[in-house]
Amino acid sequence: AITIEAWVNPISPAGTSTQAIAGRYQAYQLQINSDGKVVFALSLDNSLDQQLTSNNVLPANTFTHIVGTYDSLSATQTLYINGVLDVFTHVSSRNKMIALGSVEQPFTIAGFVSVDGLSAFSFLQGSVDEVQVFNRALADSEIQSIFDAGSTGICKGNSGDNEPALFVPIVLSSAGLNNSFYTSEMVLTNRGTVTATLHFTYT
Q1: C-alpha to C-alpha distances, 107 to 50, 52, 102, 116, nearest whole angstrom
Q2: 3-state DSSP assignment of residue 167
Q3: Residue 39 in contact with residue 52, Cβ under 8 Å?
Q4: Contacting residues for 186 by C-beta, under 8 A, at least 6 apart
Q5: Which of 22, 39, 76, 177 is most solvent-facing, going by the fewest CB within 10 Å?
Q6: Residues paired with residue 128 on neighbouring β-strands, in sequence order
């Protein structure tokens, strides 16, 4: 079972190629197809044979909350848009999804890396925020709660408490090949409401 979710703000949803939102390439991934619709793709039996497509095209220059879930017990794959169930299906290959974290492919945001690790592609033209992955299928109420948090976000700390502010860094600009996989420098921005010390590992 798995849930992958993110807020995405595409500059131009429809285009000539797929745009990655987040995920492990050929394992589980959220992406925008060339027609501007969201796809939640799963690898069952080591092939991307389960692709669930949204009913509508994403709006441009607007943050939209996207959630994909797969419940292996009920063999149900679902896609939520802005807290509301958009489309679902029952898959035929039950309990055969690659175990969360067991694949060799890296988890990437706003782009995918090839299986051999030698190239990167499907770059998102836009922004991604608050990417999360769970090793279970979130309930409708949990997904609604995440969406309801809106611009206040769920990856934030409160002034005066002892909990660190946690967030997923988004690459806004970079040198080199202008992507987040092969670069010598990058800019990380905390868009939360609380000032916090940034700790990160860059390899």
Answers
A1: 19, 20, 11, 14
A2: coil
A3: yes
A4: 171, 172, 173, 174, 175, 180, 202
A5: 177
A6: 8
